[in-house]
Design goal:
InterPro entries: CPL1-like (IPR048661), PriA/CPL1_fungi (IPR038955). It is a single chain. By secondary structure, this protein is of the alpha+beta class. It has three domains: 106 residues; 84 residues, Hepatocyte Growth Factor; 93 residues, no CATH class. It has a six-stranded antiparallel β-sheet. A five-stranded antiparallel β-sheet has the order 1-5-3-4-2, with helices on one face. It contains five helices and 17 strands.
């Protein structure tokens, strides 16, 4: 059974077992497509989900997620999967044969009371927003110390609210329509990463205000090829394959001109990557396979 709840259903117990920055986020079906092309680590050195996460996080060319299965045992270094599977109980137990999935180098960890039926989100706080993924909540709340995520079967996504703190939680079984509380780890809050996030988010908000006159919020006005200087297309450059991370042909200027410098990448033109073997994820091209004579490294293809 696959569900938006699956990303969160197992976080209550196991998030506390992982070391800082390796956050447990759910269960992965053994038949997941994400496991088709993975790097399997030495099973003798990894006997637990947390040990697998630590081993994958230490890899110089890691892929961002680790998957551990007790049978074997088996530890895989994988990219962000598109499919997830629900846990078997509120404590976060994965079904026999399924993989325990960690998000590596995370700045967030489960709050002291992970699942709540009621809570108070202290100011400053955002309004509740509906987003398609848990990762989108992480990005939305990047400048806040705490957040609450509610998996919603009615919307097929997640509602999330960012806040200064989560107070007066009423503990509840982790399930759909229950609030999952997260807080930024103390180490992350004290790091330069968090302070840079504040600055970066302010820049993004300014850019969004400038772009909103041309496109809906979250979309970027990008120039399109041709001789018409007033032609542009609204794109989600976080996931647009041919304009990944920015406008490949340049951004249509907020003043009405089109002089902005091109910043995006056309993922379909990457050297050594076969057609259909690349995606744009969070503004970065990520390859899943390479042509003959190339090897896959850090989501790209390099000459063997």
């Amino acid at each position: 059974m696959r569900s938006s709840l699956s990303i969160l259903a197992t976080v209550l117990f196991l998030a506390g077992q992982a070391r800082a920055f390796n956050a447990y986020v759910g269960c992965l079906d053994i038949n997941s497509a994400a496991l088709d092309s993975t790097i399997i680590l030495n099973s003798a050195a990894v006997q637990s989900p947390a040990a697998c996460a630590d081993a994958c996080a230490a890899r110089p060319n890691g892929h961002g997620y680790s998957a551990f299965r007790a049978a074997g045992p088996s530890c895989a270094d994988i990219t962000s999967p598109a499919d997830w599977t629900i846990a078997t109980d509120s404590a976060g137990t994965c079904a026999a044969g399924d993989y325990s999935l960690y998000r590596l180098n995370s700045e967030w960890q489960s709050d002291s009371v992970a699942c709540n039926s009621e809570y108070a989100a202290t100011r400053p706080r955002t309004s509740v927003e509906i987003v398609p993924s848990l990762g989108e909540c992480f990005r939305l709340c990047v400048t806040y110390p705490a957040m609450v995520v509610v998996p919603s079967p009615r919307t097929g996504g997640f509602s999330c609210q960012c806040a200064q703190a989560i107070l007066d939680p009423v503990a509840a079984t982790c399930q759909q329509d229950t609030g999952f509380a997260y807080r930024r780890s103390a180490a992350a809050a004290a790091s330069g990463v968090y302070r840079r996030s504040l600055k970066d988010t302010a820049s993004r908000k300014l850019a969004a205000r400038q772009n909103h006159k041309y496109c809906p919020a979250s979309l970027q006005p990008c120039r399109i090829s041709g001789s018409n200087p007033d032609a542009y297309e609204c794109m989600d450059t976080q996931y647009e394959l041919e304009s990944c991370g920015g406008c490949a042909m340049g951004e249509f200027g907020s003043s009405g001109n089109s002089t902005a410098t091109a910043a995006g990448i056309d993922c379909t033109r990457l050297t050594g990557v076969p057609m259909g073997a690349v995606s744009c994820l969070e503004g970065k091209c990520v390859a899943y396979a390479c042509k003959k004579g190339f090897t896959l490294q850090s989501g790209g293809c390099v000459k063997a």
